[in-house]
Amino acid sequence: TLRLKGDLAKFPFADGKDGIFQVKARFRDATLRYAPDWPEIRDIEGSLLFEGARMLIQGHKGSILGVGIGPVAAEIADLARDDELITIDGRAAGATAGFLKFIEASPVGTRIDHFTEDMTAVGQGEFHARFDMPLRHIADTKIDGHYRFVNNQLLIDPDAPPLTDVNGDLHFTGERLEAQRIRAAVFGMPLAVDVATTADGSVAAKAAGTIVVRALAQQLDLPLFDSLSGTAPWSGTVKVKKKNAEVHIESSLQGIASALPDPFNKTTREALPLVMERKAAPAGRSLLSVSLGSAVKAMLVRRSDNGKTVVERGAIGVGTQPRLPDRGILLAVQAKRIDLDAWRRLAGGGRGDAVPPLSQIDVRADELIAYGRDLVGLRLVGTQSAGIWKADIKSRDLTGTLEWDGKGAGRISGRLSQLSIPASPAGRGADSVDMPDQMPAIDLAVDRCVFHGMDLGAVKINAENAKDGYWNAKFDVRNDDATLEGSGRWLPNRAAAETRVDFKLAAKSIEKLLGRLGYPEAVKRGTANVEGTLSWKGSPLDLDYASLDGNVKFEAFSGQFAKLEPCVGRLLGVLSLQSLPRRLTLDFRDVFSQGFAFDGIAADAAVTHGVMDTQNLKIIGPAAKVLMSGSVDLAAETQNLKVRVQPALGESIATGVLLVHPLAGGAAWVFNKLFGNPVDQAFAYEYAVTGSWADPKVEKISRQPADTAKDGAK
After folding, report:
1. What residues contact residue 162 under an 8 Å CB cut-off, 6+ apart?
2. pLDDT tens for residues 178-230?
3. How far apart are CA 122 and CA 139, in angstroms?
4. Within the chain, what is the greatest distance between any pair of CA atoms?
5. pTM
6. What is the DSSP letter of 592?
7. Neighbours of 346 (CB within 10 A)
8. What are the strands, taking DSSP E only, across 96-162?
9. Out of 172, 174, 302, 620, which residue is the most buried by the measure of CB atoms under 10 Å away?
């Protein structure tokens, strides 16, 4: 529509007194390119007004970068001026992500060093902006804008966790961004953010909040939070200049108590300063450094690769300040005590990518606890290449070279010059730590292995994982005194762990072998062969007598039981029979108490739930023949045996008579042999041996001929 009225000499009737000049129009699907380099407004539906020297465009609705806007007004108050000024005032409500695109696509993005380029947002907001644009000097445009976040989720920096429940007002001009007390939450913990543009043109975001351990535990669900409690204040800044973001976050951690292993154990009053910094590095890299008091120092050099952050090299030090390697990531640890079992439990359920993959390790510890056992004076240096670790290990109990292949359940191979496996301290056996459900394969040779203080000699073990979940192993143990070989199966399941072993033992010297096993001088001389099959609940390194089942075959030759002190030798004390009454005396020595010599020992035994049962144990010696039957409880160290002692009197009598009267002595010897040693059997004794091994109860059952207190048999 057009209205024109008045003296045209006074056109365009700017004051409205001398006439009327008015043009009105309605439009839709219009595009407004209000200034170069600014995002255009599309799909406008509205009205156009020329009235006097004034122009007014009103958009009832439209969109910028897909975000719906409206109302929008664009006005030139005086078209007749030489320095025309257009004023644009608009409002919008829509996705925050679209607003961030608007900032980046406009000249503001360049002026603030693209602070918002990498920011991402989820949620809605309200936009209001006014532009005063001199059409002949667009560069002098003045902008005054506001954006109100309404319950948004905002990611300011890829290294920082996302902000949730973001509410507040962000103010921007053509030169700066600023905001005060934007409220948000991180991991469910409240914080406040201030944004300002500094004098050098960079944009800085300052944040402050409170670390609440309970809230972190609910969000991250890591076992280590069970050892933490309390709250502590923190503060941080993100400063962006020329696409480089410098990040600084710090907290004294006062107010948080930690029951984590040393050096992270602290009370609420103690400070353990946490500082994290990210700075620009040459060649487009960034340097991330983290420190936790003097306990942890870490440095990582990173670069961006197709939008992903890649760690090129770095160093992580615990208790030490490590050097930054030329490539790869070094983990250096120096500590008096490292409880690896505790850290394994605390790491349960954690993300495997939380720690960058390592390529070098250097560990020095006075004591390291792993799987319930200690390594003293440990120095471990290792390198990784193509997924395979090679390490040199030196300690009091373990020295050698090992190789670890992490594929599948893993594989350990190598050679150790020495390996000592001490007994687990009380409460720290294999059952007190979390054993893996699948063990790694092993191909290991040990030149000298000491197990629970016993020097076993050279040991070779080869083990593989079977499809049924068992760990199948073959072992070979050799020393100067004996050889032990066999195979075994272990189900390393904490709820149903079980071990089965098939073995053969050949002892060239029982005396020296028992000396290796901690029973010196328990038996003199002698050789032995033992073979059998045994199974029990639990680990191969922790024999559980209560669940022990299987069978054993034993034979020994040409030895002598020594006189054993009470409780020494334990099961050997049962076989030595030294607890029997001193009824028999040959050659003026007590047969058993002073050490029973044997020419041969043979027995088969079955073991059921830790109780060993035999019906045919036989000991043949020059002084007596012993037949034994009954049971021995290995767990309770008790016995219930029937022992028949048959002294070799026939030989002694025949020999004595032979010295006095050769003819009569020869006849006695022939008589004894022809009729099955009747003299020996005539003086045989039977005993019931019960009670504990340390203090057995011995009762005589019978004697042939009838026992008299002072007869010639004594």
Report:
1. 153, 154, 155, 186
2. 898 899 999 889 999 998 888 777 788 899 999 999 998 888 878 888 899 99
3. 32
4. 176
5. 0.69
6. T
7. 18
8. 120-134, 142-155
9. 172
